[in-house]
Amino acid sequence: MTTGEREPGVAQLVGGAHPGTRLNIHLRHYEASLTTALREKFAACAWLAGADLVSAAARAYVRVQPPGHPCIAEYGEDFPQFIANYGRAPTMPYLESFAELEWAVGQVAIAIDYPPLSWPHFAQIGSERLIDSALILQPGLRYLRSAWGVDQLMTLHLSGTEPERFVLPESDTFIEVRGARGTVHLARLDGATFTFRRELAVGSSVGDAAGCALELDSTFDPGEALRLLVHTGLVATTTARANAS
Amino acid sequence: MKVAAATRAERGTNDAPLAGVGLRLPHLAEVATGALTSAWLEVHPENFLANPHARELLLDIAQRHAISLHTVGLSVGSVTGLDREHLRRICRLVDEVKPILVSGHLAWSTHRGVYLNDLLPLPYNQETLHVVATHVHEVQDALGRPYVVENPASYVGFATSTLTEADFLTELVTRTGCQLLCDVSNAFLSAANMGYDAHAYIDAFPAHAIAELHLGGFTREDDEATPGGEILIDTHAGAIAAPVWDLYAYALRRFGPRPTLIEWDNDLPSFLTLLAEADRADAVAVDALGHGHSHAPAS
């Protein structure tokens, strides 16, 4: 079914003069439904790289990487890596990052915010306890690092803008994707702030996240970074102990 | 828009039958505003389990509308067993939404951890009956309520079948206490594709177990299996065909009034178009049954 090959059980089928050929209806539906789902999820990639490339990559992907679960919203997380190596895609070294960004945009757009932690509540946590605490950030947050300014490309796509000429800068780019209830916002962060927030997002303690950021930039100010995080509503709650250290 | 919608709502459930419509994601925000309404709505839980925003809107809509959950991924016909994590997720959604019905298909779609995103056919024999009945029992135990099993759209059958589809479903009801969803369009197109009489199929369906009826559009294609012939594909991509309306009227006379659902999933039209199809189903039901019958589900 997933590879388009029929097994010997075809001989047991009935329906029409050549019933085995009716399996093609199921084969076509399997391929078409999932290919359509991937094309819709990666519409920005089709805008960038061409619908033919994305469709062909999607058809190949559904054969080698069929879904493991019935929720198709969860299908395609590793399609960015797949399409990056498909057909003429390797001539577009930024495509994998762009596809990862598109996946992240799709994920945060369907998120809903938790009630944000207020500053007075946050301030009640003593500094000694805070350093070993983990922060639960809003579910509609993703952190992506790219060697290309793919956030600029995505902003063009989301705004429906198509300039005649666009030079994609090759530069280390730290992107925060924030969304909820259908809205999405892309922001560029400096490397240390990105590292701090990404580490918190994966469950590191405040102390460990700050350590990682300070390794990158010795002038990084963890207190100011925390204040900004809470004031912008990105922190939902704290846990007494971090999941990872 | 509001006036048209209100006409259906104000008619109520006591003096005329009311059909429901399938609520798909593109219409979700529009329906959540409350400007449009339907007697009841059916959703595919798989579209909401991994989509918190859609789930939030659904829970809001469920405060105002009766909701039916129609699963597409439970795969009660899989010999490799149910996806128990998926079943747990469905149960959590059922607890939140409190649907009037929970239904799914007589089909299989998973095998050894691979989900095939289609409703695949089963041979109708004792071995399959044992597999399906075991899984329906498990689903009903988890849900704490009857599971409603739908007859599939068929393009191929199996030489190893020893029971008709209607007899298979009747035996499934006897063994599990499940209820049935008679998809009248599936009955029509399966009969055409497999060469049997649709009215005889309806006659053989166990009327006492039917909790719901479905109506959906199909597409005609050339039949690769029979050069020069055509095959009817259950695409849910258009209006309900005239002969299916006739079979629906026949089914209502045979079964009595039942909640009826308009399915339209592909090439999705406006929500108002779906409501117009539901209105037509109501009119057919009034003609078939006479006035004073209600087949809106109890909420």
How do you describe this structure in short?
The complex is a heterodimer of chains A (245) and B (299). Chain A is α+β, with helices and mostly antiparallel strands and 245 residues long.
Order of helices and strands of chain A: EHHHHHHHEEHEEHHHE
Biggest interface, chains and residue tallies: A-B, 38 and 44 residues
CATH class of chain B: Alpha Beta
CATH level-4 homologous superfamily of chain B: Divalent-metal-dependent TIM barrel enzymes
Please outline the major beta sheet of chain A: 3 strands, antiparallel
| CATH topology-level fold name of chain B | TIM Barrel
Helix content of chain A: 40-55%
Strand content of chain B: 15-25%
User: How far is it from the N-terminal to the C-terminal residue of chain A, by CA?
Assistant: 45 Å
Order of helices and strands of chain B: HEHEHEHEEEHEEHEHHEEEHEH
Instruction: Compute the number of structural domains of chain A.
Output: 2
Q: Give the count of helical stretches of chain A.
A: 11
- Largest sheet geometry of chain B: 8 strands, parallel, barrel
What's the total count of β strands of chain B? 13
E-strand count of chain A: 6
Shape of chain A: elongated
Number of alpha- plus pi-helical segments of chain B: 10
Structural class of chain A: alpha+beta
What does this structure look like?
The complex is a heterodimer of chains A (245) and B (299). Chain A has 245 residues and is of the alpha+beta class. Chain A has 2 domains: 92 residues, no CATH class; 153 residues. In chain A, the strands form 2 sheets. A 3-stranded antiparallel beta sheet of chain A has the order 3-4-5, with helices on both faces. Chain A has a two-stranded antiparallel ribbon with strand order 2-6. Chain A is elongated. Chain A starts with 12 loop residues before the first strand and ends in a 6-residue tail after the last strand. The model of chain A has no long low-confidence stretch (mean pLDDT 92). Chain B is an alpha/beta fold and 299 residues long. Chain B has one domain: Divalent-metal-dependent TIM barrel enzymes (TIM Barrel, Alpha-Beta Barrel), CATH 3.20.20.150. In chain B, the strands form 3 sheets. Chain B has an 8-stranded parallel β-barrel with strand order 1-2-3-4-7-9-10-13. Chain B has a two-stranded antiparallel ribbon with strand order 5-6. In chain B, α4 links the parallel β3 and β4. The two termini of chain B are 25 Å apart. The N terminus of chain B is likely disordered. Classes of the chains: A alpha+beta (245), B alpha/beta (299). At the A-B interface, β1 and α1 of A face α3, β6 and β8 of B.
